[in-house]
Amino acid sequence: MPEGLRVGYFPGCTLKTDARDFESSALAVAGALGIEVAELSRWNCCGTVYSLDAVNLMPRLASVHNLIRAEEEGFSEIMTLCSMCYNTLKRTNNLFTSINSAVVADAPWRTAINDFLCLDPGYSGRVKIYHFLEFLREKIKPEQVKDLVVRPLDGLAVAPYYGCLLLRPKEIAIDDPEKPEILTPFLSALGAKVIDFPLNNECCGAYQTAMHPEAVARRACRIISSAQSEGADMIAVSCPLCHYNLSALQNATNSRQSGPKAMPIIYFTEIMARAMGLNYQTDAANMTPTSVPPGRCRASAWEAAK
Amino acid sequence: MKIILGNSHPQSLFAQRIEALSGQKLFACYQCGKCSSGCPMAESMDLLPNRVIREAQLNNGPVLMSCRAVWFCSSCFACAVRCPKGIDIARIMEAVRTIQMMDGKPITEQPSCEDTGTLPQIALVSHFRKFNV
User: Fold this and answer.
1) Which of A196, A274, B49, B119 is deepest in the core (most CB within 10 A)?
2) What pTM value is reported for the model?
């Protein structure tokens, strides 16, 4: 077990409410792997979406505040669990780190933001932003995970679903945007059969769920059907919004008696924690009104592993 | 008072505003259609993403001002990573949304109270940030 592995942790809003089981399972897994996760003592909303406006400074400031606090608390690396937080913080951070920013209009922003915040010397851009998945890949070997498995998944077919914000745009991608497989070695180490399906990097509809739920339901239906046709027993996600969107469809589907069969949508950290025999708080599982109990389809191995 | 009109012909103002707001080169697009073919929300759109760009190149303000497609873009950046000309189309969609809102013609609907009760925070906050100026 590696020693002295310490990382700052930016939770974001949803990890403290709807996705509490994601947070608690991730913290349990990190603890078992010897990673010391230190939550930032002060943090605010990351902004949830990175502003695409090339002229308005204000939407970037929430993220910059968090990065400044991370630097003040002495963290050179911080980690997020939510894909949206990761994307927003990392892209904001890129404004300060990449001289040749992907968007030319972004280049002068480093000075403008520091001038606006009246900070001396301003945010330096030295904090490195990780998603937990990326952190595991960089710092932990799959064999270390394998050593800790007490309830192997015995060939349970798990389809990793990556969504958009971990893979796009290219400058913040933690893996190949078109053929991601960052979860494969870790799920294999747990004894799962990893299912590759063609829609694993397609958007679930994201925040459109607030305005156009019917369009998101069509997306989710297609994604779940695709995973199911490849033989998946469950879908592993890494984003609270993907989790909500893919689960939310299922209630509608069950009442319509059409579309794909119900399929458990589980955070990848929950799968890891359960295979590693770790206890974690699951009180939030009942908070999400759309959550589907595991084992509605042919996930009998999953039931046995619980 | 002397007023000098530069190269900006009044008819090109719409395209200029989009370029300024998005930071993207609108006229780099040569209509290959790759953005639309990979867009996960295309089936819900009244104008496909490449068509939005084409109408912007043509300064077709009325079409873009009544275009609902931009409200279906969920900024997943599939178009942006695949564009052979390196255009971030999601930024252009955002610019058209912004112009619609700035010119007082928002075509957005608010989610109902019953819906908001079950939505996770990230969906709500994103919605407020994307669909309000």
Assistant:
1) B49
2) 0.89
